[in-house]
């Protein structure tokens, strides 16, 4: 085989090298021609980077980190606070401690107030006593002033009373029949 090296490495023949050189020269010539055409049209590529105005801008086709894309979406929709509160509710045990988290759970967040339910009256009392500490700890997670109060609901041990299923149709009758 022509062009074989005694060590088993294929090397291009002089004919192939000449062809490669012609191809490279042709490519350089075509690139120069494309640049000249672009210059005539006024569409030369930029030589210096774009200046950022105000904040980070990106071209619509540029890739973006997933976390940054989610943050942009949350900010654009105004969902930052609800998502942060949902994160606190999801990490409730971690934030308030294992024992307190085992006996309580956050129910809602309305107008700066976190509504917490407890599984016994003793734990409800404990949460009421710890309310200022909980407000401070929750504000550390969410930002100062987000949580203003903690409201506690005790256990709801009995189901709500429902009216019976048996009904008597018709009028109630005269009022003096029981006497």
Overview of the molecule:
- This protein has 179 residues and is mostly helical.
- The chain has a domain at 78-153: GMP Synthetase, Chain A, domain 3, CATH 3.30.300.
- The chain contains six helices and three strands; from the N terminus they run αααααββαβ.
- It has helices at residues 14-41, 66-77, 80-90, 92-96, 98-103, 121-142; strands spanning 104-110, 113-118, 149-153.
- A three-stranded mixed sheet has the order 1-2-3.
- Strand 2, helix 6 (121-142) and strand 3 form a beta-alpha-beta unit.
- The longest helix has 28 residues, at 14-41.
- The mean pLDDT is 76.
- This is DUF721 domain-containing protein.
- Pfam families: DciA (PF05258).
Outline of the structure:
With 179 residues, the chain is mostly helical. It has helices at 14-41, 66-77, 80-90, 92-96, 98-103, 121-142; strands spanning 104-110, 113-118, 149-153.
């Amino acid at each position: 085989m022509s062009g074989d090296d005694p060590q088993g490495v294929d090397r291009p023949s002089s004919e192939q090298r000449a062809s490669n050189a012609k191809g490279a020269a042709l490519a350089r010539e075509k690139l120069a021609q494309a640049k000249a055409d672009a210059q005539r049209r006024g569409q030369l590529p930029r030589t210096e980077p774009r200046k950022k105005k105000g904040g980070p801008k990106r071209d619509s086709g540029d890739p973006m980190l997933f976390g940054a894309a989610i943050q942009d979406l949350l900010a654009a929709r105004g969902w930052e606070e609800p998502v942060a509160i949902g994160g606190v509710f999801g990490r409730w045990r971690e934030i308030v401690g294992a024992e307190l988290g085992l006996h309580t759970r956050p129910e809602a967040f309305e107008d700066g107030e976190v509504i917490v339910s407890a599984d016994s009256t003793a734990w409800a009392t404990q949460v009421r006593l710890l309310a200022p500490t909980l407000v401070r700890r929750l504000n550390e997670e969410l930002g100062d002033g987000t949580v203003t109060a903690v409201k506690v609901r005790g256990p709801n041990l009995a189901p709500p009373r429902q009216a019976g299923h048996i009904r008597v149709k018709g009028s109630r009758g005269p009022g003096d029949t029981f006497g």
